[in-house]
Amino acid sequence: xxxxxxxxxxxxxxxxxxxxxxxxxxxxxxxxxxxxxxxxxxxxxxxxxxxxxxxxxxxxxxxxxxxxxxxxxxxxxxxxxxx
Length: 83
Fold this sequence. Notes:
Layout: H1 2-16, H2 19-27, H3 31-46, H4 51-68, H5 71-78
Keywords: Cytoplasm, Cytoskeleton
Subcellular location: Cytoplasm, Cytoskeleton
Organism: Caenorhabditis japonica
């Protein structure tokens, strides 16, 4: 599936960031970009990531929630478009 391969690619890119660099990267995102990234975080978890990947994804999730609030989570789950 093309969407799953795209998600795997995004996951690899997210994993390449050091934890110290995640906050500054998230701070540069617009609300729409943050929502899209949050969709990829959830989709990556859904695809069965291992513990190291999940740890990285949870770091991204925490920074996205810190900047965009719980609205980011609500927008992802209530949106009609899926990855």
